[in-house]
Amino acid sequence: MIKAILFDLDGTILDRKSSLINFIDYQYNKFNNYLNHINQTTFKNKFLELDRNGYVWKDKVYTQLIDIFNITGLSADVLLDDYINNFCNQCLPYPNLKETLDILKSNRYKLGIITNGKYPFQYYNIKSLQIEEYMDVILVSEKENIKKPNPLIFERAAKKLNIDLCECLFVGDSYKNDYIASKSAGMYSIYRLNNENKMYTTTNYIKSLSDLTDIVTKSNDLL
Question: How confident is the model at residue 223 (pLDDT cuts 50, 70, 90)?
């Protein structure tokens, strides 16, 4: 029987691409005196390309942007510091996030987040979504010194919730790091489709967060 539902962050409950586009526009305007020789759309598209959907940390992205666009008077460290401190102000949830969490909580599921990434950066992003109070456990890989797909991070979450792995359902948008990894660790798994990933051969997937409530509130047997 499922007692807890755990989520990945980026691409699962946080609309990372839309959030990043918001941030790039904000940052371009903030540092316009140094960037106005670059077309804003060109700058944004190159940033997104170098970012590789979040798999490249921004120190490398900014170093490359400065070199590619011959940016002077502005260092990668300044841009990175601005990213670390202000990205959270541009974070956008996927539709129906709070409504979904409300329904799950009303059905007495324990909730949590397991995310790869920097700490406290990812924690600030979670806090900006105003969902911290819903969560019974939050694990950020840098703080835990374990990252997905290592099964130990899933085991740690279950232990903190005082339940078995087989009583947990994990939802994430990375087929390898979320779906396969959580399943291999002993959890039930649901693959989160979004505009940035692709469909794999699995019947356990959702296209929107509201789809999740339809699954878990009807019957545990569907899992």
Answer: low
Write the DSSP string, 15-82. -HHHHHHHHHHHHHHHTHHHHTTS-HHHHHHHHHHHHGGGTS-HHHHHHHHHHHTT--S--HHHHHHH
pLDDT tens for each residue of 24-73: 999 999 999 999 999 999 999 999 999 998 889 999 999 999 999 999 99
Which pair of tokens denotes residue 27? 């940052």
What is the rounded distance in angstroms from the CA atom of residue 12 to the CA atom of residue 115? 10
SS3 (DSSP) at 189? strand
Instruction: Give CA–CA dist 137/203, Å, rounded.
Output: 27
Alpha-carbon distance of 88 to 124, in angstroms, equals 6
